[in-house]
Amino acid sequence: MGSTSAENNGTGEFATGGVDRRSLIKRSAALGLVSVPAMGFLSACASGGGGGDQDKAKAGKKTAKNPLGVNDTAQMEFVLFDGGFGKEYAQDAVKIYEKNFPKAKVKFSATQKIQSTLQPRFNQGNPPDLIDNSGAEQMDMGVLVGKNQLADLTPLLDAPSYDDPNKKVRDTLRPGIVEMGQFDGDKVWILYYAYTVYGVWYSKKALDSLDEEYPKTWDQMLAVCAKAKKKGMAGWTYAGKYPYYIPFSLYPMIGKVGGREVLDAIDNLEPNAWKHPAVKACFEAYYELYKKGYILKGTPGLDHIQSQTAWAQGKALFLPNGSWVENESAKVIPADFEVTVSAPTGLDENDKMPFGTIWASGGEPFIVPAKANNGLGGMEQLRIMLSEASSKNFTSKVKSLTAYNGGTDGIELTPGLKSGVAALELAGENVLNPRIQDWYVQLQKEKIGVAGLGEMMAGRITPAEAIKKIQAFADETAKDSSIKHYKHQ
Predict the structure, then answer these.
(1) CA angle 367-370-373, nearest 5°?
(2) Is it the case that residue 40 has pLDDT exceeding 90?
(3) How far apart are CA 416 and CA 399, in angstroms?
């Protein structure tokens, strides 16, 4: 794929160093609509066939040690996404399940191909009991909920917590975790196990070598990138093959510039939501990185591992990513790298929200299928994972927080994890949580990510063209009666 390191000739709006960016905020983007053909749709879950229901394990007796009434002899099948967090933390939790239910067999497996592996089983009515529905092949959770494919996790949330029988599981979770699992109404369909800080990741050592601090305004960002370029380091890289990583820093920037209501409108698929001046200004800002040659050459052809490796090797300074990156790149990050995350750089002092505004939310969505043979067993496995011991085990092994509100006492935090905790403290109440990535997975990944942002950041379309394209995709999704639609309450 083509290089993104095209030089700007010093003329035009990008040579002004940002003089026009704020004026973009002050005027609306008058962009027309174009008709865009639909992209290939990821195979949606069927409403379910097969004989899963009659094969369900009978419930066991509820006791203090078994508050969900799990059948202590039934097999429990657990399929984990084999990604940046690895599988050891889950295997450790499985051992506890096996110890508690010695007559029960646990069938555990890990794969990166969640959809292609499990979609047929949903369609046949014999899905696993617990699934970590994550990764590039994540099944569309909006579709799963809309097709009644998931079990309501309220029994788990209302069960006594693993450590304290006087406290419900829901009362041990970080703020926002329960709400993230809801789509409409009180039922909770998803339990996000990891607590992810999204933002701009960098090496503090590399930034210090430039005698610079993290830039708070976009003019400062461009200046830092210019200085890095003179020293042979690109300003940015990203997962070019999976450009839906770009929103990890772009979305919270849009929220910072225009206010959280701009992101809510985007999530709600409101008409012209993508035409908001804050969206245009932020798209234009990111496009400057391409125009000025501040993106690592060849980035559009890199996958997430390759881009993270190039970043770890010092070929690029900044990387939009989530807090799993420290563990996923552990083998290639130098010992003195000082992994650090920051909230996104804003436009200027006129932004609606303060510097420090960040995207942080639940990650690693765990689901229990409605037609699971042993759904209660799947919920019990999650109850075990939400204990303090399992949470500490996860945090110490994979350098990330969990949905459990605590679990860091006595653990020596890694640089990235420490900076993530500091970023959350700086953000305070200014934490954003765009829902489009879990409400409309295909729209977010294939259309906004690959066909929109990916094309723009590779220089193949302009910001205006990207906005027009993305708005058309959003409108198409809003009008599609086969898709269940969700809104912020």
Answers:
(1) 95
(2) no
(3) 8
